[in-house]
Every structure is written in C-alpha cells, then in structure tokens.
Amino acid sequence: MNFYAKHLKNKCIIGIKILPILVAVIIVKIILHFFDLEVLSMNPLFASIVASTIFLLGFLISGVLADYKTSESIPGDISSSLATISDEIICIYKVKKCSQSRDFMEYTSVLSNDIIDWFYKKEKIEIIMKKISDMNEHFIALEPYTQPNFLARLKQEQNNIRKLILRADCIRETIFCEPAYIIADALVFCLIIGLLILKMTPFWESIFFTLIISFMSIYMIWLIKDLDNPFDYSDPNDELNEVSLKPLYAIKTVLKDNLLKF
User: Fold this and answer.
1) Taking a C-beta distance cutoff of 8 angstroms, is the pair 195, 47 a contact?
2) pTM as predicted
3) Could you list the residue range(s) of the whole structural domain that residue 194 is in?
C-alpha cells in the first residue's frame, strides 16, 4: 500500500507543489471581489493574452521534449557500451588467463559506479572524462594478449561512452531558450493578475475559471522547467520526470557479478 501511495504522490508532485499558490490565488480573488476591486471587464484582448500564453507554453514544451527524448536513451546506451567492454574482457581472459583482464574488469566496474555518482552530481565531469581516458592504460596492458580488432572495438565503446557523457552534460547544463522562459513567466503572471481583477458574473464562475486557468498555466511552467533538465536527481522525492538510471544500476550489478568469474 505504501508503494502505491508513494507512486501516486510522485505522479502528483507538481500539483502538490503548486497547491499553496492556487489557494493563495483564490483567497486573493475572494478578497478583491469582497472589496469590489475587480476593475477589468471581459474583452477580446484578454482572450488574446490567454491564447498567446498557451502558444508560448506549447512552443517551450515542444522544444524541451526533443532533448528529453534524446536523453531517455543515454543511460541505456552507456550501459550497452559498458556491457560490450565487459564481454570483450571476459573473452580475453578465457583465452589468455591474464591478470590484466581482471584489473580492467575491476576498473570498468568502478567506472560504472562513478558515472552514476556523476549523474547525482557527486562527481565532477572532469574526473569522469579523465577516468574514461585512463582506460587507455588498460588497452595498452592488454595489447600483447589480444588482436588489434578487439582493441579497436574497445576503443570504439570508450569513445561512445565519452560522447554520451558529454551529451548528457550539455543537456543538463543548457537551459532551452532562456529568454522565452522569461516571457512565459511574465505572461503567466500577467494572466493571473488579469484573472484576479476580471469582473465576471456569477462570481462562482469567475472562481472556477480563475482556478482552472491558473492551475493549467502554473503547472505547465513547472513541468517545462522540470523536463528541461531530465538529469536532475537532487530531490529523491521528485524523480518521476527524470530519465531513469535503471540500466546503469543493472550494468553495475552485472559488472560486479562478472568479477566473480576471474
């Protein structure tokens, strides 16, 4: 039961976060109505503000979704490259029984854990890139025990991991069209202010539309900013919209098990 309750909470986390804002909006709306401070009348220009806000939010979410779809495959692709390297190391060991292959397997296992730590910002990108480059020392150590095409395959997987890490770092550190966020925030703010001072009868209809439009606008802003960084694991209670790292945890376990084969 606790699992389903936690899953439901994660699904509604953005709604829960903006709930106090919506309560404050409704309270302010009631106060303004009580003191007869609703000075704005319904007109076509107000409808154009609503349409402009929706259009801009649609533009932003279409932009961040493109990067999000790219990001979804990154942990799986890194895991695939690590698994391929592991398979090659095991093949070398079965043929040559060299201790260098075990050292490389242990290094790869540690690297997989370091990559997970990097996603959680417990490790710097410079350290990860150096550790990926340091795989060259193990390639050199294995050169007498294997064929050149095996080493070429390992170098290719090393390059794939490097490119994927750099791609993930770029997505995590780059804000999609930051000026558009500023305009979107300003439009949503103006829209909510307009709803608060908009005179509409009956009053309960005004409350209903203010609540619905405010909820939709604020929720979309928060959702877009959340999706803009699909590798933000700073809040363990808010990882629903982040890219899953399950493939990396899976390969971490596999690499540890492979060490037992040596």
Assistant:
1) no
2) 0.83
3) 11-70+177-228
Task: Give 3's pLDDT tier (boundaries 50, 70, 90).
Answer: very low
Task: Tell me the DSSP string of 178-225.
Answer: HHHHHHHHHHHHHHHHHHHHEE-SSHHHHHHHHHHHHHHHHHHHHHHH
* Mean pLDDT, rounded, for 93-120: 92
Element (H, E) at 40: strand 40-41
- Return d(Cα 90, Cα 102) in angstroms, integer: 8
How far is it, in rounded angstroms, from Cα 168 to Cα 174? 10
Distance between CA atoms of 176 and 224, rounded to whole angstroms?
10
Is 217 a domain residue?
Answer: yes
Structure tokens at 82: 């690590």
CA angle 180, 185, 189 (to 5 degrees): 145
- 80 in Cβ contact with 112 (< 8 Å): no
| List of residues 6+ apart from 145 with CB closer than 8 A | 92, 95, 96, 98, 100, 101
Q: Is residue 191 part of a domain?
A: yes
Half-sphere exposure of 221 (CA within 13 A, CB side): 20
Mean pLDDT of 207-223: 92
Q: Could you give phi then psi for residue 198, rounded to 5 degrees?
A: -80, 130
The total of structural domains in the chain comes to 2
The stretch 172-176 carries a mean pLDDT of: 82
Chain CA centroid to CA 225, Å: 10
